[in-house]
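User: quick one, sequence for these C-alpha cells?
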C-alpha cells in the first residue's frame, strides 16, 4: 500500500487540485492541454486514500487508465466498480459519474479527454459518504 508525503508528491510533479471539486485531497499533473493542434486533454490525478471527485459529466469520452491503487468508479444508478492498476474505463459522453481512491491507499490514474471542443467537464454535487461507502 503506497502512501506519499506532500513533499514526495510535489517532487513527482503534482500540484494541488481545485479543492471545491473533491472530497479529500487530490493532486494534478498536466501533460497536454487542448489547443489549435491538439483537441485533447491528458493528465494524471493522484487521489489520497478516501478521496473522490464530485459527480460530473464530460462532453465527449473520458478514458481513465489506472496506474496505481484501486479506483472506485460509479455511474449514476449503477453500483460502484473497483478498477485495479493496469485496467481502464472508457466513460461515454454525458454519463454522470465520479471516481476516486479506495479508503486505504493512494490511487493514481491518467485521464484522457478527447474532443475537447465539446467541453472537458461539467462539475456537479459532491459524492456523499453513503454513496462512496457502497464501494
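Assistant:
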Amino acid at each position: 500500500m503506497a502512501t506519499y508525503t506532500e513533499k514526495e508528491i510535489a517532487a513527482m510533479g503534482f500540484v494541488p487540485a481545485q479543492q471545491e471539486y473533491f472530497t479529500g485531497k487530490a493532486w494534478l499533473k498536466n501533460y497536454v492541454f487542448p489547443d489549435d493542434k491538439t483537441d485533447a486533454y491528458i493528465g494524471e490525478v493522484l487521489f489520497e486514500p478516501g478521496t473522490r471527485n464530485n459527480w460530473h459529466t464530460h462532453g465527449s469520452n473520458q478514458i481513465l487508465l489506472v496506474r496505481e491503487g484501486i479506483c472506485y468508479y460509479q455511474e449514476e444508478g449503477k453500483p460502484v466498480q473497483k478498477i485495479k492498476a493496469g485496467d481502464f474505463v472508457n466513460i461515454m459522453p454525458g454519463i454522470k459519474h465520479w471516481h476516486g481512491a479506495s479508503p486505504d491507499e493512494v490511487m493514481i490514474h491518467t485521464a484522457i479527454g478527447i474532443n475537447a471542443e465539446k467541453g472537458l467537464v461539467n462539475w456537479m454535487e459532491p459524492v456523499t459518504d453513503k454513496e462512496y461507502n457502497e464501494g
